[in-house]
From TrEMBL:
It comes from Dictyobacter formicarum. Residues 943-1008 form the HTH luxR-type domain. The keyword Transcription regulation applies. InterPro entries: P-loop_NTPase, Sig_transdc_resp-reg_C-effctor, TPR-like_helical_dom_sf, TPR_MalT, Tscrpt_reg_LuxR_C, WH-like_DNA-bd_sf, WHD_MalT. SMART domains: HTH_LUXR. It comes from the Bacteria. SUPFAM superfamilies: C-terminal effector domain of the bipartite response regulators (SSF46894), P-loop containing nucleoside triphosphate hydrolases (SSF52540), TPR-like (SSF48452). This is LuxR family transcriptional regulator. Keywords: DNA-binding, Transcription, Transcription regulation.
Length: 1010
């Protein structure tokens, strides 16, 4: 019988679950009625008569419930994920349109995904999800149409909002209420003092935006090192572009911005405000006017402001608010007096209301300053609480945020959950930080008051309380909070141990400012027996305040300690050497730096993969700059292997880019192509296809396609690289992509787009203050004018560039400028002066084994010889360039040399006896590519016919055909379909009057195409 009843009950529950109304694909499916279309009259009538339904869409799902708040009915969405309940305000019945429900499902799904429990791994940064969660909407929140209407009107014309007022003036509640009923996506970031670390600030800011747009601006994860060692402005233009990925009318709220006192953050936020894209609205909530250029923004008409004067409750609003609270009957006179004493300050209104409930005949008296407030809180609020509650409030005031377990630990009680629930019911002192209402913090005004009370009445408890907090955070594996409390408690040994344990990870994140805050609190004596701590301090000094003598003293202290502890820390001496190598590099002593890097590389343990990968990358770059190409290649390949194996993907990709550049300099273009694709494979294996440094891979592939004259594919790759650079905020990727795309657009005949793009790049470099970028653009400007054969510009540039024609040895820093000067002199019909420069450059290029530069110089030299009437020498030099170029398949270097090269190429093509070291087919390919681009009229009718009939793709297929590739292999090589290959082959046969592969190849060889 019991079993029978259980089965019946279970079936009844399942039946009830089945009949829950469901909204799906634009229709309400209700067991009681026929399907109802959303947005119809029947839909809104149904909502009036029902309390719940289930909404399902592609963007997400939730359960909607109608709940009574302050005498009215509102709809809320709930979604449970990984044991946590998340909610979202939907609005009144008339606001539940199909579009609004779909957007809410997407937003709630994003919030739920972003709020996964923080990692307990001490080696991974802990994200406090409470900081990126909008404040929980309490029951009884007063609708303030006076202010929400004002905000809605401002939002039609303004993007930037400043909401300022003292603690407890209702700023956050107003903004949350306004946005929750607006029907547009918004996200929230609650700031605290720890966010003065730039890397910390930007990491949380981007994390909050990723609630709305997952994956946005990943450069803050992969480029945290740049945030504290270089101006953040170098990444901001691209970061701002990445914001364009956000949905329209997205709002970001920066709450409690008054905690930020780092001028670098102010300056960079000011920059963001200046160039804020239309998709984003920024709301800054602060107790004081933010330290950004408000005056300028006001003058530009960009800002909307609400101050304390507007935020204060009017007597009418106080009356309306009190009408929703039971057992609070106040007369009109009492309301007026309450308004006078509190000036409509909602925090004091709440506190005064509490006092009124305790002593109905008394209202607040006294002055309106913090002393008055604290006196009031002490006498009328704290004193009215039981002693146990008073003790709890003061003791937990040392915590920025807390849950019941943490409160149990520091108060040494077991019933704090009950106390928190009691405080939560009061809705005065305590504010929940998450939807699950597990984490809380005190109202800032009340928290300051409680800490003052603790210092006055129980100063002896402050140290033990911080000690207990530090112990709890250590047990929970949250090192940052543990270190802060250990320092506050004077537990410097514990703090030092924690910094040693987790400082390496923070160094990898480049969280230097946080480390410095902790390190300066430690007494000098704590460093004397801790060489690891000394080295962490040295790295921080190196990045934040590079005073070489102080860093050296720190290193000497570490070395002194290591004399007695070398067995305990075998790796530290190598790290000391690596730091000294970095210092030598910063001071321009490359030989010293190379010597020290080699020593560090030799001494590091084989299992220290991360450090060895970084040293190998530095070694490879240094070797390359010194011309030691074999050693550079070996070091860079080692960096790729080591960094990839320890999942340091950013260093892996940077090493790949550096190695590929080395291959390009050596003329090994196919090897560069292969290593770039290796980078793409590694990232795909790690499921990181959107990693911003991948932009280097796509930019590199675009540069290679340009050289191979595959212009359409070059443009595609370069744009992919630029997009990743913009999304990730890496100005180097973006700028290199632009530098490659501009000549590509010239090759496509899109000259107007080129100079528009150049103006964008100039603005980017100017905004970011990137000096190397300015140099790159100056060289690029001259090159673009040369490619356009702009003789007037080139002549003006050569007269003002300041490059001497009489220099005996050319500085390698100016080698590219001198090459442009040599080409300009040819435009001015000065072949002897041009040849003099070229010969000096050729000698340097041969010494460095830089085939790419050698090739370009040989081609320019051939044109110079021809201009001087030395035809035989010109042909011999051009032949040498073809021999050098064919293994790597160079084409664009010949095309970009200009139309004066074509008579020489044609001369070689008409006399097969002159071919030495290169094939007739390669010569024909280069000749046809140059002739097509420059519109050259051939004297040789066979070549003219082919130039008019065979397309570039058909010539490519012809070469692959000669290599013996099958149709499928050709399709795979060119990334086209097999049917497309068959179509091209049919066209080739027709144009060559051939009926088979054999006949087509024979005819092509007779025409010197193969």
């Amino acid at each position: 019988m019991i079993l029978c009843n259980f089965v019946e009950l279970h079936g009844w529950v399942k039946k009830m679950a089945r009949i829950t109304p469901i909204v799906k694909e634009g229709q309400l499916i209700d067991a009681e009625d026929a399907a109802v279309e959303l947005d119809s009259v029947a839909w809104f009538r149904w909502l009036e008569d029902h309390r719940a339904f289930r909404f399902v869409s592609r963007g997400g799902s939730f359960t909607a419930r109608k709940e009574q708040r302050a005498g009215r009915w509102y709809w809320y969405a709930y979604r449970r994920q990984q044991g946590r309940l998340h909610n979202l305000y939907l609005g009144k019945t008339e606001e539940l349109t199909a579009n609004h429900l779909a957007n809410s499902a997407t937003m709630l799904s994003g919030i739920a995904s972003a709020h996964r429990p923080a990692s307990t791994n001490m080696q991974s940064p802990t994200l406090l999800t409470a900081k990126v969660t909008p404040p929980l909407m309490h029951t009884g929140v007063l609708e303030r149409p006076r202010l929400t209407t004002m905000l809605r009107e401002y939002a039609m014309q303004r993007q930037i909002f400043f909401i300022t007022g003292p603690a407890g003036s209702g700023k956050s509640t107003l903004v949350n209420s306004w946005l929750a009923t607006g029907g547009h996506p918004y996200t929230w970031l609650t700031l605290d003092k720890a966010d003065n670390e730039p890397a910390h600030f930007w990491h949380y800011l981007v994390s909050s935006l990723q609630v709305v747009q997952p994956g946005l601006a990943l450069h803050t994860i992969t480029q945290r090192s740049a945030l504290n060692t270089a101006p953040v402005a170098t990444t901001l233009p691209s970061f701002i572009n990445a914001l364009a990925c956000l949905p329209a009318n997205t709002t970001l709220v920066l709450d409690d911005y008054h905690h930020i006192n780092n001028q670098a953050i102010h300056d960079n936020l000011d920059y963001v405000l200046e160039y804020l894209p239309r998709q984003l609205r920024l709301v800054i909530v602060s107790r004081q006017e933010p330290a950004v250029a408000i005056a300028r923004l006001r003058a530009q008409g960009k800002v909307a402001e609400l101050t304390f004067a507007e935020l204060c409750f009017t007597p009418g609003e106080i009356k309306q608010w009190l009408s929703g609270i039971e057992n609070q009957p106040l007369t009109a006179e009492q309301i007026a007096l309450l308004h006078t004493r509190t000036q409509g300050w909602i925090a004091l209104l709440r506190l005064a209301l509490l006092a009124q409930s305790q002593a109905p005949d008394q209202l607040t008296h006294g002055q309106d300053d913090h002393e008055y407030i604290f006196d009031y809180l002490a006498s009328e609020v704290l004193a009215s609480q039981p002693q146990q509650m008073q003790d709890f409030l003061m003791q937990t005031a040392i915590l920025e945020r807390f849950n019941s377990e943490l409160c149990n630990a520091i108060t040494q009680q077991q019933n704090t959950r009950h106390i928190l629930m009691q405080l939560q019911r009061e809705q005065i002192f305590l504010e929940p930080l998450d939807g699950a209402q597990q984490w809380f913090h005190y109202h800032p005004l009340f928290s300051s008051f409680l800490r003052q009370q603790l210092e006055q009445h129980h100063p002896e408890l402050i140290v033990p309380l911080h000690q207990r907090a530090a112990t709890w955070y250590v047990q929970q594996q949250i090192p940052n909070e543990a270190i802060s409390h250990a320092c506050a408690a004077g537990q410097f040994t514990l703090a030092a141990q924690l910094i040693e344990t987790h400082g390496r990870h923070l160094l990898m994140q480049q969280a230097m400012a946080v480390l410095q805050i902790w390190l300066v609190q430690l007494p000098d004596s704590i460093f004397t027996e801790r060489p690891q701590l000394c080295l962490i301090s040295a790295w921080v000094q190196l990045h934040l305040a590079p005073r070489w003598d102080e860093i050296e003293r720190t290193l000497v202290q570490a070395e002194t300690t290591l004399k007695t502890q070398a067995d305990l820390y075998p790796e530290l001496q190598s790290e000391i050497v690596a730091i000294r190598a970095r210092i030598a590099m910063y001071q321009g002593d490359n030989m010293r730096s190379l010597e020290l890097l080699q020593q560090a590389h030799t001494d590091l343990a084989r299992d220290n993969l991360y450090q060895r990968g970084e040293v190998a990358l530095s070694l490879g770059s240094t070797y390359a700059s010194q011309g030691f190409t074999d050693k550079a290649e070996a070091s860079l390949r080692e960096s790729i292997r080591l960094s990839s194996s320890c999942h340091n993907l950013r260093t892996t990709l940077l090493a790949i880019r550096t190695l590929a550049n080395l291959y390009v300099e050596l003329g090994k273009l196919p090897q560069a192509w292969q290593i770039y694709h290796e980078g793409l494979r590694i990232s795909n294996d790690k499921s990181l296809a959107e990693l911003p440094p991948l932009g280097f891979m796509y930019v590199g592939l675009g540069e290679l396609c340009y050289e191979w004259n595959d212009i359409s594919r070059a443009r595609e790759y370069l744009r992919q690289g630029i997009e990743l650079g913009q999304r990730g905020g890496d100005i180097k990727i973006w700028l290199l992509g632009y530098a490659g795309l501009m000549p590509t657009l010239l090759a496509l005949g899109e000259d107007s787009q080129v100079w528009s793009l150049f103006a964008e790049a100039e603005k980017l470099v100017e905004q970011s203050g990137f000096p190397r970028g300015q140099l790159l653009l100056e060289q690029l400007r001259v090159r673009l004018h040369y490619l356009q054969q702009d003789t007037a510009f080139m002549q003006e540039w050569s007269a003002s560039c300041g490059l001497s024609l009489d220099v005996d040895e050319i500085d390698t820093l100016y080698a590219e400028d001198y090459q442009l000067l040599a080409q300009t002199l040819l435009l001015q019909h000065r072949p002897a002066a041009s040849q003099a420069i070229i010969q000096r450059l050729r000698h340097q290029a041969e010494t460095s084994r830089s085939r790419g530069i050698q090739l370009s110089l040989l081609i320019t030299s051939a044109v110079a010889y021809a201009s001087a009437g030395e035809t035989s020498q010109a042909l011999e030099t051009l032949g040498a360039s073809l021999k050098l170029a064919e293994p790597a398949g160079y084409q664009r270097t010949f095309i970009d040399a200009g139309p004066r090269l074509l008579p020489l190429l044609e001369h070689l093509s008409t006399d097969p006896q002159t071919h030495h070291g290169y094939t007739a087919g390669y010569l024909a390919k280069v000749f046809n590519s140059c002739a097509r681009f420059h519109g050259y009229k051939h004297k040789n009718t066979r070549y003219a016919s082919l130039n008019e009939t065979l397309s570039r793709r058909e010539l490519d297929i012809l070469h692959l055909l000669a290599a013996g590739l099958s149709n499928q292999a050709i399709a795979d090589s060119l990334i086209i379909g097999q049917n497309t290959v068959k179509t091209h082959l049919k066209n080739i046969y027709g144009k060559l009057d051939a009926h088979s592969r054999t006949q087509a190849l024979a005819t092509a060889r007779s025409l010197h195409l193969l």
